[in-house]
Protein 1
Amino acid sequence: MAPAAQKSARKSPAKKASRAKPYTPETYVGHDGIGALITRCKTFIWEGGDRALAAHNITLSQWIVLKTLYHGEELTPATLCAEIGYDTGAMTRMLDRLEKSGFIRRVRRPEDRRSVRLELTPTGRAIYPKLLKAIVGELNAVLEDFTIAEVRLMEALLGRLLTNARARAAQGRGEG
């Protein structure tokens, strides 16, 4: 996210009180609310990602795993479940497919043999640039009506929304 977009998203001229409660029971229309719009966008972007990656026999969910591992983040299957919103059974099946395809491997941790971390294989590393090109092409197609400044502002605002949503979820789980 560009620093200028972060600043403009943070420094809204609106008063705090008007930002705190954008909806009322009288004015809320569910299908036009932020949650519904984000859900519908996610659905269509996810479908487009799956189409863009289909030529490589990869799904968008699998891409997320490969992308995260490519960028050096240490992952466990449990971390991925939380990040993608998959249940453990579905995650196990997806990781099985990625491992069978030779893109990842599971490695037992020496300090805790019950725990597994995921690693990208050389085959997974080699296919990544092709997958990235497909995903970037799809995202650029979806964003073609926006200026770069608008995209950066949207990223900043969605990043802020994600931070707030994560904090609320943590509170709900008794973590915050």
Protein 2
Amino acid sequence: MVSNVKVIIAEDQTILRKALVVYLQRSGSIEVAGDVSNGKQLLTLVKKQSPDLTILDLNIPVIDGFEAIDIIKTKFPKVKILVMSNVDDPLTLSKLISKGVNGFVSKGAELAELTDSIHKVINNELVFENKLIAQHKEGKLLSEKIDELFSDKETRVMKEICNGLTNIQISKRLSISAATVNYHKQRIYRKTQSKHAVDLLRFVHKHQLLSFD
């Protein structure tokens, strides 16, 4: 096991962040070089401290986790990244793998699992438990798992969104209420990390999720 691992924690929930600092410092094998509450502070501290690893939440403010990951991977490629988040749907995990993230731990995990994951990542292990991610690593398309990622209703709504239909038009075509359409739409956007229909369309085409014949 690697000792004296130098880490930085980026988490906007102060109580959780400080608790992690105390726990990791007491582990005896991990040095917490700093803790921050937003992505901008994280990038500044990474540049100053040159840590072995950063632990970050995806929903940190100012510069969010996804953007911070891209910047760290570009400017500080030797720094490993362990995401700690409640956002653990398959598409998000797949996106993290694509960005070169080294591991993921749920905020609901035991603290011992966190320290174990840190050491695994430092030893160049990819820490993702989800089977889909293992398949993604092997190069399989997300389209092969669409039934596992989206419900049948979500798939139908997603296709109509990509066809340019409004909520009202989709509700009439699928014989469901506009409120139900919006519910599925928000779930789809969350799973694909899309902000609007154009983002969704790009994602669908990139991963060949749907056929538009």
Protein 3
Amino acid sequence: MCGRYVATRSPEDLVQLFQVTDWRAEERLEPSWNVAPTDQVYGVLERRPRHDDDGEVRRQLRALRWGLVPSWADDLKIGARLINARVETVHEKPAFRRAFVKRRCLLPADGFYEWRRIDDPATGGKRKQPYFIHAEDDEVMALAGLYEYWRNPDVERDDDPAASIRACRSPSPPTTTTPGSTPPTRTPTGCASC
């Protein structure tokens, strides 16, 4: 199951590559070769501007917090556990089904890590060996994602920056149990601050 990924591209590159029309310079993120759950990541999403139901849908590049926090969750901490979703059940699970229907996004990545348990001759036990999965031509990967809005019940004022967050995650391909097959991959998911 994927628990780390790499995101090093500049927002200017991502704006051009994904034909983004709305990006906030104050949401600039530093490159990371080890993105972990709850870290800030970029997400590409399409939506109308807030409080403008008649406005034009815009493609946005937004800073997201990796780890989905469902709108009904009581606590932000659940997002650290909700970083991956199974593609075969994402439409059924209560934590994901609303976002699956209404709020999809892309998570740009240079690649992600998968770990495989292997024999360790030095100890006689097992150890985890990381493998970096990336595009053959080293171009940006666009991981499928879902995002959700979460309202912090501990913050009273809606205009407070801590009042709400936007959360997202990525569905994973189906698993396989065929002996000798390639280990199933799990793509990362995230959650964003508004």
